[in-house]
């Protein structure tokens, strides 16, 4: 098949969506498919992955004025050796700051996000639509795939569908999600319904999201498939072992959290518990470090909370191999979401500690079936008591006794890629059947 992916988030971005499609594109290519990717040109700084296979062709377009400022800043940063840029630092305890240029860009993003739907990333749409038009004409794909988030990719999928091409929408979260700004709720729900009604296939990452879309829009289950995130099962970069900026102490219980600390992920109970528990150290690899009271707690932990900035993905993977325990902070108020990082954790023979936030914590419910570690209420005293016991178990050499730590083959990216190829082929066939039905006078959409 010839597949055209439309994605705002794609390497060099390190967002969960970018990582998902970096690996899925690779797997599709390795299966022999021809993959084209339409992305905004946000600069080349930060690419840490191996070169894509030859049958993945990336088409970059002007990202919009603000995106151009980001692109220019990244290239200036690369040429200057890193000085003066607002990016994160990987120095323990250093925190992450923005220079004046970075603060200016962030301010413009906030202002633009008040006007553009769903946020400032919609500014690339005019250029993306023009490039999409040209690609559809020059290299007609068998299927177009749009990666959400952001939602600005979805109208591009609708455009391709209206031009007569098969279209699959890969949704991370619902378009109308709990964190959607109130001003965009009505518009988000309307776009979500368009996707549910018109896409030849919809892919979600959890059963809960599929059930939610069915309840809201009555989407046909045959057109809505679950394709969870996964982990890389094709080896690792040996060079990363030489580049990890911190050491792990065999005499301490070493915890690692790698990901984002969104507003719905509160690390405070964990930070307090680590500060209270001798012999335990927490390393945070986060582009958005603790602030305010969280930062004060981390600073008061006597060096046992290390805050690193954004790091190359290969280095993050290497650190996850070395840590004693991989930590996940449960989401609050997002009952349909399981963080992509948890699937990545399943590729390592390391135990997982999950901070359970209650009845709407989908990740806690999912993890219970793996026997891979510990679920603990996100409460300081409960966490401190658990950590003290685990530190003792490490000293005794029994930390992982009774746990099931083998990689879960179902979530390997190679398996995810094979499943995706089948879903895309089914969507393309479904589109062909629908088109023939309409040509013969059937009511559009009835065959779906």
Question: Could you give a short description of this structure?
Answer:
This protein has helices at residues 16-30, 65-79, 100-113, 125-138, 154-162, 185-198, 207-217, 268-276, 293-299, 313-322, 340-345, 362-367, 380-396, 413-439; strands at 2-7, 34-40, 56-61, 143-148, 167-171, 201-204, 224-226, 253-258, 280-285, 305-308, 325-329, 352-356, 373-377. The radius of gyration is 22 Å and the shape is globular. It has 2 domains: 2-230 and 414-439, 3-Layer(aba) Sandwich (Rossmann fold); 238-396, Rossmann fold, CATH 3.40.50.
Radius of gyration of CA atoms, rounded to a whole number = 22 Å
Which runs of at least 5 residues are low in confidence (pLDDT < 50)?
Answer: 45-50, 78-96, 442-448
Q: Shape, please?
A: globular
What topology, given as strand order, has the largest sheet? 3-2-1-4-5-6-7
Strand content: 15-25%
Which bin fits the share of residues in helices?
25-40%
The CATH superfamily of the largest domain is identified as: Glycogen Phosphorylase B
Number of helices: 14
How would you state the average pLDDT, rounded?
Answer: 85
Report the sheet with the most strands, covering strand number, pairing sense and barrel closure: 7 strands, parallel
Return the string of H and E elements.
EHEEHHHEHEHEHEEHEHEHEHEHEHH
The appropriate CATH architecture of the largest domain is 3-Layer(aba) Sandwich
CATH class call of the largest domain:
Alpha Beta
Q: Ends: how far apart?
A: 22 Å
Structural class: alpha/beta
């Amino acid at each position: 098949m010839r597949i055209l992916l439309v994605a705002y988030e794609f390497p060099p971005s390190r967002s969960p969506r970018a990582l998902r499609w970096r690996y899925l594109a690779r797997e599709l290519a390795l299966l022999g498919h021809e993959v084209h990717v339409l992305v905004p040109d946000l600069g080349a700084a930060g690419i840490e992955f191996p070169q894509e296979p030859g049958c993945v062709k990336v088409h970059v377009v002007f990202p919009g004025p603000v995106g151009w400022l980001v692109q220019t800043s990244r290239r200036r940063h690369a040429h200057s050796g890193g000085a003066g840029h607002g990016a994160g630092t990987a120095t323990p305890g250093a925190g992450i700051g923005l220079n004046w240029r970075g603060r200016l860009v962030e301010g413009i993003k906030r202002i633009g996000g008040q006007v553009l739907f769903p946020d400032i990333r919609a500014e690339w749409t005019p250029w993306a639509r023009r490039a999409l038009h040209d690609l559809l004409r020059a290299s007609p794909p068998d299927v177009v795939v749009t990666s959400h988030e952001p939602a600005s990719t979805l109208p591009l999928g609708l455009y391709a569908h209206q031009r007569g091409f098969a279209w699959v929408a890969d949704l991370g979260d619902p378009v109308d999600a709990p964190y959607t700004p109130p001003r965009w709720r009505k518009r988000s729900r309307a776009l979500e319904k368009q996707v549910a009604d018109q896409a030849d296939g919809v892919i979600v990452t959890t059963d809960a999201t599929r059930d939610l879309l069915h309840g809201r829009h009555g989407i046909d289950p045959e057109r809505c498939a679950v394709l969870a995130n996964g982990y890389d099962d094709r080896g690792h970069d040996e060079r990363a072992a030489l580049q990890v900026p911190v050491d792990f102490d065999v005499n301490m219980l070493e915890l690692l959290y790698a990901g984002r600390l969104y507003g719905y992920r509160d690390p405070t109970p964990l930070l307090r518990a680590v500060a209270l528990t001798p012999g335990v150290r927490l390393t945070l690899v986060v582009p958005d470090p603790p602030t305010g009271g969280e930062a004060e707690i981390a600073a008061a932990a006597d060096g046992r909370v290390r805050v690193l900035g954004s790091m190359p993905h290969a280095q993050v993977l290497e650190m996850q191999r070395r840590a004693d325990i991989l930590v996940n902070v449960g989401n609050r108020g997002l009952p349909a979401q399981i963080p992509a990082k948890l699937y990545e954790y399943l590729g390592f023979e390391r135990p997982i500690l999950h901070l359970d936030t209650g009845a709407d914590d989908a990740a806690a419910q999912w993890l219970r079936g793996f026997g891979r570690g510990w679920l603990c209420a996100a409460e300081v005293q409960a966490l401190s008591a658990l950590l003290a016991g685990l530190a003792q178990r490490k000293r005794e050499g029994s930390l992982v006794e009774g746990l099931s730590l083998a990689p879960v083959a179902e979530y390997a990216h190679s398996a995810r890629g094979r499943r995706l190829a089948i879903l895309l082929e089914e969507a393309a066939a479904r589109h062909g059947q629908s088109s023939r039905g309409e040509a013969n006078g059937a009511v559009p959409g009835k065959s779906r």
